[in-house]
Amino acid sequence: MRRIILFAFFAIATISAVAQTIVRDKTDRQPVPYASVFSQDGNFLGNTSLTGEMPDVGSAESVRITHVAYVARKVDVKDLSGDVFLEPSEYQLGEVVYQKPKSHCICLTGYARNYEMNRLTKDKYDIGPDESFYDGMIRIYLFLGTDKKAEKQVLFARNLKTGEMKVKNMQSIGPFAGLLTNISYIEWMRKYDVYSLRETDEGKTVISRKGADVGLIADDANDSIIHFALDFVSPDDEKNMKVLFINYRIKEQTANAVYRKTDNNYVSQTDLMALNSRMAVMTNLFGDALLMDDFREFYVGKAEYLTKEEYKASVRECKDMRKSGQPMMTSEQLNDYIVAHNIPAVSEEIVTKMALVKQLQDDIRHRAEAKRASKKRNKNN
Q1: Quick count: other Cβ atoms within 10 Å of Cβ 48?
Q2: Which of 78, 142, 211, 350 is most buried by its number of CB atoms within 10 A?
Q3: CB within 8 A of 28, min separation 6: which ones?
Q4: Which residues pair with 22 in a beta bridge?
Q5: Are 141 and 106 in contact, with CB atoms under 8 Å apart?
Q6: Rg of the chain over CA atoms, in angstroms?
Q7: How many CA atoms lie within 13 A of 81 on its CB side?
């Protein structure tokens, strides 16, 4: 009985310590809102609150805290008390981009990484988890003065599980939430009636939806970049949608962006430096629940305005490259690009997920092989 009481006491003490832990910027000691928290197994546990408070970590022994504007950090749960500090990422500030006469679109060229996993919660049909994990260089065209959706051209893609370089697999790297217009997340948010904005005493802007705080716009310590964070799904609201006869429930849809700060209040997509987005969707497939987990990152290396003729030439260059079958970089050169542009390494939670998916796929393959062998033996008998 005494052991049970002591265990309960320590469990309550651990939960209390985690609840009081604040994730802060190491430079200015300000809270870091909407940082993603993962368990040692790569499971998403939640985001930090608007004031940087840690979410409930359950029975996790250690957690990894990530944010597009900071270096990821791993912490043992037993050490979670007081403050946890994150080191700001060192983004390279690109040159100022000016609009040309007769500009047709904004072209963003950069490094992209895309992890996607679909998994049936039941193994009724021996259908294992389907996983794709690619990185590469892409161009995104954001058209000016029109409602036309952004256009994506993959220069080349690399399968991060096999290391194979490709130029023809256009579905390897998907689009990115929020890059549908030529205005930034920040300007779009100020024009969107569903959301309301309020300034804080610290000079930050809090984004609210349906009375709940769901996002934040804040300058960094040295005043050179702006952080944007938004949870598209309010805490009390899960998005539901229907495509044909299939019902989808969006459980999570978040975006984090880093913009270069300009001298005026207008921030365009030419000032975008880094973006990541995450979506978790539950649906129903033949009576079984299907989980789709999608995580995407984009790091802009170059932003420029293009005339209509320049846009056509840029698209033609991408198509010619795909026809040739020769990527513009080798795998080693792409790795050099990642290092030179201070792009964060693949996060530990994604690596862990890949290992778990591989194990599940191997288990299903072994069961299928055993099933075929059993049928063959029965047939021979």
Answers
A1: 24
A2: 142
A3: 220, 221
A4: 53, 83
A5: yes
A6: 23
A7: 7
For tokens 């890059």, the residue is: 179
Q: Which residues contact 271 (CB under 8 A, 6 or more apart)?
A: 184, 259, 260, 261, 262, 303
76 has which bridge partners? 62
Q: What is the Cα–Cα distance from 289 to 294, expressed in whole angstroms?
A: 16
User: How many Cα atoms occupy the beta-carbon half-sphere of 122 within 13 Å?
Assistant: 9
Q: What is the pLDDT of residues 136-170, one digit of tens each?
A: 998 999 998 777 888 888 888 888 878 888 876 55
- Separation CA 11–CA 6 (nearest Å): 9
Tokens of 293: 């987990």
Determine the Cα–Cα distance for residues 279 and 178; give it in Å rounded to an integer.
13
Six token digits for residue 365: 């393959």
Judge whether 264 and 249 are in contact, CB under 8 Å: no
Predicted TM-score of the model (pTM): 0.75
Residue type at position 213: D
